[in-house]
């Protein structure tokens, strides 16, 4: 299973000792015992508050292990959690992720309270493009449909025709059956999707006077120069060094990595796809080229399989979300996510189309 589910009853009824025992079993090999005891006490308090406020907690795959393995009702990638947000009947949604994810939950649930435990949990990729940038692209390429990665803020989604995630990006592009597609904002994901779908991609240059490109160049996709500050750090040299020491290693890369890294890897897919691959593989060891907390979470869930621990890259924004802040979110009703209704309605259409494709 790639979306882990514990019932609300299971989570809220666990004692401190039961939570501690579960954390110790999964994380005890690399986490001090006293820290696990403190985390268990925090998790128990959060689960009590969750029951009192009729809340659901969504945890992204990049959450730190003690949080990931103790309080979420659901864990997964952006697409999976978007679906869970759309289906919930709880009064409060606490999104242990980053702002664009919490905004997506609010887009899908305008009548419910959506809380983001840290107001600093942003995203370098989401920051790379604005709504005005999308409008500028539409003016430059009139009539060309806009596909926007879900890792964007609500006002950017509102300017788009359809959203996508890393797991369904190629399917979304092909579903449009268009001569050309604007794909925003991740440069590497766009290049990887263009190669997968057999399309020639161009990247207009943003200048003070507008967007510049050679009008004589043929294209089927128009991309943007946005990047994830985590995934752009991985290199082919990283893979070569690991393979030299561990020739039988299976290398998994997120599609936000560069095309060269994806080419050098054995498998590329979304966070959920990587989890599923590790669960099902027969290889003796594996290397993950993605956010490092996720590596810890996969290792904890698959103790009989060896993970090569190359990674030392944590997303500084995901790292802002802690058990302490999640408790305070429920205790003090912070930080409430709001999306202006005119933006929400337009963004909803793009997200709904994404969910319909699957």
The named CATH superfamily of the largest domain = NadA-like
**How is the main sheet built?**
5 strands, mixed
Mean pLDDT: 91
CATH architecture of the largest domain: 3-Layer(aba) Sandwich
Q: What is the helix fraction of residues, given as a range?
A: 40-55%
CA-CA gap between termini: 17 Å
Write the CATH fold name of the largest domain. Answer: Rossmann fold
Rg on CA atoms, Å: 21 Å
Beta strand count: 16
Total helix count? 16
What does this entry look like structurally?
The chain has 358 residues and is an alpha/beta fold. The chain folds into three domains: 4-119 and 318-332, NadA-like (Rossmann fold); 126-227, 3-Layer(aba) Sandwich (Rossmann fold); 231-307, Rossmann fold (3-Layer(aba) Sandwich), CATH 3.40.50. It has 16 helices and 16 strands. The chain has helices spanning 8-13, 16-27, 33-53, 65-68, 78-87, 99-108, 131-140, 154-158, 169-175, 187-197, 236-245, 259-264, 271-280, 292-301, 323-332, 341-357; strands at residues 4-5, 55-60, 74-76, 92-96, 113-115, 146-149, 162-164, 181-184, 201-202, 205-207, 210-212, 221-222, 250-253, 267-268, 285-289, 306-307. A five-stranded mixed β-sheet has the order 1-3-2-4-5, with helices on both faces. α6 links the parallel β4 (92-96) and β5. α2 (16-27) packs across α3, α5 packs parallel to α6 and α6 packs across α16 (341-357). The radius of gyration is 21 Å and the shape is globular. The protein starts with a strand and ends with a helix. The model is unreliable at 1-9 (pLDDT under 50).
